[in-house]
Amino acid sequence: MQFIQLVISGIAQGCIYGLIALGFVLIYKATETVSFAQGELMMLGAFFGLLVMGFWGYPFWVAVLASMGAMAAMGYVMERAVISPILGQPAFSVVMLTIGIGYVLRGLVTMIPGIGTDTHVLAVPYKDQTFQWGGLMINAEQAVVVFVTALLCLALFGLFKYSKLGIAMQAMSQNQLAAYYMGIPVKRLNSWVWALAATVAAVAGLLLAPITFVHANMGFIGLKAFPAAVVGGFGSLPGAIVGGLVIGVVESLSGFYLPDGFKDTAAYIVVLLMLMIMPNGLFGQVTRKKV
Amino acid sequence: MQFIFKTHYNQDIQLAKHRGHVFWYGLLLLLLVLSPVLLEEYWLAQLTFVLIYGIVGLGLMLLAGFTGLFSMGHAAFLGVGAYTQAVCTQAGMSFVPALICATGLSAAVGVLVGLPALRIKGIYLGIATLSFGFIVEEVLARWESVTGGNAGIHLKAPNLWGHPVNSAEGFYFLCLVLAVVSTLGVLNLLRSPTGRAFVAIRDSEISAQSMGIHLAYYKTLSFAVSAALAGLGGALYGHKMQFISPDQFSVLQSIDLLLMIVVGGLGSVHGAFLGALFLIVLPQLIALTKDSLPDAIALAPGLQSLVYGVVLIAFVLFEPMGLYGRWLKVRTYLQVFPFYRRGLFKRQKTFQKSERVR
C-alpha cells in the first residue's frame, strides 16, 4: 500500500515534469532549439494566476484563463523579439539566449516590491481536500494534476492530428525548408509554437502552485524536466509525458527506499544511465546524418 | 593595415606574429608583474580572481570554443579540483604535489564524463554534463567524512616547499605564473596537430572523421585537458577563498562560467581572460551604480540576475563573437581607416538545416 501511495505521488509530480518537458519538446520539434527559460515561464504563469486570483480577487477559472492567455502572448512576443532574429545560428546561441531570458524573468519577478521575494499560497478551490479510495489517500491536488495533464495531452494530440495548424507544425518540425516551400508561414508558426509552449508552461505552473508554493525560484524545477525530455526522447511528445512519469516515480521511490541525497539526484542518475544505454530515449528516432 | 612578409614556414606557427605582438604582450606582462605596486589590496584580490577564472575559462574555451562540446556542468570540475586540493593539503601535502593531485583527479573525472560524450552531442551533451554537475554537487554535500558536507572545509595558505605563501602579493604571483603557463600551454596545444584536430571536430565532425581524426580519442582528450585546467583553477580558487562549500560549485556557477566565455568571445583565447575580467568587474560596476539609482531598483535582490540576463541576451543578439570580436572590429576599423565597411564582419545568414535527415 505504501508502495502504491508513493507511485501515485510520483505520478503527480511526474506529470508536472512531463508538462514542462512538453514545452521543451514542442519548441525543439519546431525550431530544433532548446529553451532553458521554460521553468521561468512556468513561474511567471503561476505568478499571473496569483496576481489575478490572490490580489485582484477574481475566481479561479478566470485566473487560469487569464494566465494562459497572458503567457501565450508573452511567448509569442518573446519569440518575435529575441528568438527569431537568431534562428539559424548555432543551437548553443539559443541556449545561452534562453538562459539569459530566464535570468531576466527571475530578476524582474524578484524586483516586484513586496511580492517578488516572498513565497505565496495559491488558494485554489480544491486545496487540502483528500479522498479515500480503498485504503489509499489521494490528494485532490494530485488528482487534478493527473487529470488536467491527461486532458491537455488529448487536446494536443487532437491539435497535431486533426487541425491544419498542428499538421503545419508537424511538417515544419520535419523539414523546415520543405515546409517553407509548401507555403507554410514558418516564421509565424515558430511564434505560435512558442506561444503554445508558454501556455503549457502556465498550466504546469498553476498545477504546481498548490502543491509547492509560488515563489521566484520555483522555475528551477525546469532543470528536472530536462531529464524527463531526454528519457522520453527529445523529439517525441508522448515521450515527454512518459519520461516525466518515469522521472517522477523514480524520484518518489528513491526518496523513500534509498538513503538521503538520492531523491534530488535520482533524475540525473536516470538520465545519465539513459544516455549511456539508449541515447535516443524511449521514443526517439534513430537517425544518422548523411553527408 | 599591416602585412606580414613571410619568409619561412615556421612563421605560420609562431606565437608572436610580429613585433607589435611582442611589444604589447610584453607591456601587459610588465603591468601584471607591477600591479601589486600599482593596485590597492582590494583590486589586487579582484585581479587574482580574474586570473583564476581566466584559467578555468581557458579550459572551458578549449572544450566549448575550440572543440565544440558544451559543458553545462563545468563547476563540478572546479569543485573536484578545489576539494582535492583541500583534502590533500589537510593531509599534509605541500602545494605543488597537491596541485598535481587536484589537476590529475579533475582530468580523470573529465575522461569519465567525456566517455558518454562520444555517443551524444549537442544539447544531449549539455544535459549529460548538467546532470553530472548536479550529482557532483550532491556528492560534495553528502560525503561528509571527506568533504565536510554543507559545513564546508577550510584551506590553509599554500605551502611551497616549506615556505607558506601568506601574503596577497605572493599568492597573486603564484596565480600569475600558473595563468601564464597555462595560457602558453593552451596556445601551444592549439597550434599543434592536436589543437587542429579539436578545431576540425568543432567545424564538422563528419569531415574531421573522414580526414582520419580519431573522434573518441580527441574528444576525450579535450574533456581531460579542459577538466584539468578547471581543476587547477578550482585549487587556486579554494586557496583564495580559504573556505569552500558545495553551493559554490552549483549549476549557477556553471552558467556563470558559460556566460564568461560567451561574453568574452567563443573561440578565442583572449576571450577567456576578457570574459573573466567582465565576470569580476560586472558585480563591482553594479555595486558602484547602485548609489545613483532610486532605492526601489537599487535594493532589489534580483538586480544582478537581471543585469546578467540582459547582458547575455545583448551579447548573443548583437555581438556573438563577444568582447574579443568587438575588439577585432575596433582594431580593423583603426587599421583600415577610412575604408571600414559596415558589412565587413557581417554574420552569414544560413537557412536552418535539420539534423534529422530522413
- In the predicted model, the low-confidence regions of chain B spanning at least 5 consecutive residues are 349-358
- Side by side, the strands of the main sheet of chain A go 1-2
As for the number of domains of chain A, it is: 1
The overall average pLDDT of chain B, rounded, is 85
Number of helices in the DSSP assignment of chain B? 15
| Strand line-up across the major sheet of chain B | 1-4
Radius of gyration of chain A: 19 Å
Count of DSSP helices of chain A?
11
Helicity level of chain B, as a percent range?
55-70%
Beta fraction of chain B: under 5%
Q: For the report, how would you describe the main beta sheet of chain B?
A: 2 strands, antiparallel
- Summarize the largest interface: chains and residue counts: A-B, 60 and 54 residues
Oligomer state equals heterodimer
Overall geometric form of chain B: globular
**What portion of residues of chain A is helical?**
over 70%
C-alpha geometry of chain A: globular
Taking all Cα atoms into account, the compactness measure Rg of chain B is: 21 Å
